[in-house]
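Ticket #4471: structure output looks truncated?

Reporter: J.K.
Steps to reproduce: submitted the chain below (301 residues) through the standard prediction queue, then opened the result file.
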Amino acid sequence: MSQSVYLVDASMYVFRAWHSMPDEFRDAEDWPVNAVHGFTRFVLELLERHRPQRLAFAFDVALESNFRNAIFPAYKANRDPAPPELKRQFGYCQEVCRALGFVVLADPGYEADDLIGSALAQVRRAGHVGTILSADKDLAQLLGDGDLQWDYARNERWTADQVKARYGVHAHQIADYLGLTGDAIDNIPGVPGIGAKTAAVLLAHFGSLDALYERLGEVPFLRLRGSAAHAERLKSNRDAALLSRRLATIACDAPLPEDFDCGARRAVDGAALEALFERLRFGPLTRRRLQNAVPVATTTA
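Returned output as attached by the reporter:
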């Protein structure tokens, strides 16, 4: 029977907790654990309210590097390195997920997006669909029939068919779109002078970045302000556009754990959970909620 497999962009929710939770939570060694407490509350709320039967958490293990840095060393070079106290908390968050019996996806050479894309590919082969928990627009490129993306914090959901209304281009055009516009957050260059609206118009007309460059001679004749100048920009920045698309394309062949099993939940590791209670100094309410977060019945693929 087909099921929806929940694939969580865990790093996003760890960062959100890191920035939103007060710096008053400390572990047994007096390190801050505010992000762990906030992330754990998110996980518990997800379990209690929605009771997903299949669930996996994807983490960014290498916060400063992955295979894209070999292609483009400046990729994400504009970001400050994660402080040691945050890196430590990422490890704790993975431990919490594993103790609860959930699959953790983490690889030093791939980002969480790539792990989600690779997991979704396996999920589809097993006849299931995916629910991606993330607000990241890049992940919209993965959506297919039956899939859903969910910005949990804002409680907004969208399907592949709804991506164009949200971002101006279709789901399958997201990587091409970012190839044109770039992405300042990830330090992806794109084509200078090509903004969101222009990129959307170009992709609506040509369909893809490849078709755009095959028919570049048509661009000056489009009903688009500055079309001749855009044609010149596109011509002189072709390599940058193709590189940017490559950087923005989510890999779907990253290695996954042998026991991924489409996110089927394992038994809770009570001993590991008890140890985390002490190390992380969880309060009695959180401890009780974690103890009550027992697996629901699942159907194996």
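Triage note (M.O.): checked the attachment and the full token line is present. Residues 297-301 have pLDDT under 50 and may be disordered.
Status: closed, working as intended.
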